[in-house]
Amino acid sequence: MKTLSFTYDPLxxxxxxxxxxxxEFIQGKFYKAKQFAMYDFLxxxxxxxxxxxxxxxxxxxxxxxITFNDWATECAAIFEQIYKTEKYTKxxxxxxxxxxxxxxxxxxxxxxxxxxxxxxxxHWSKILEIVENKxxxxxxxxxxxxxxxxxxxxxxxxRDEIEKFIMSNFRLIGGGKLLxxxxxx
Length: 185
Description:
The protein is mostly helical. The chain is built from nine helices and five strands, in the order H-H-H-H-H-E-E-H-H-E-E-H-E-H. Helix 6 packs antiparallel against helix 7. It is elongated and about 90 Å long.
């Protein structure tokens, strides 16, 4: 049998395997923001970024060489490193903010750019949940002002302070109601 010699570009081969992984194991099986972010990341990824991700993968997994003998497992582990990058995180966040999250609806906490999926008609309850977990000192006055529209001060906060906090800290994604409709009757 005659042997054929050829050379290959390991980065190009890695890109092919990563693309194949997304097509076979991600496409149609996860929310769209994840799918779109993965494709965008692969499309925009420079050779230097790929090399950095692969170095992180090798360090994290302890492998001596990337062989792709078990390509799907290796690609899944490489994507675990991709998910940790700032670039991927921003791409997924941006797609969620375009309405491509798990439900198409959500609340963004602007203080740290965290996206929270929520169900249909669930924006306000999600805001209350976020406030309870991240800003507990504001929960009681927020609930009080929501129930008693004529009150202007409660638990050391004014209505204006709480309303300003809500309007500046949160952004609604999807749905048919504006944020200020939740805080003023």
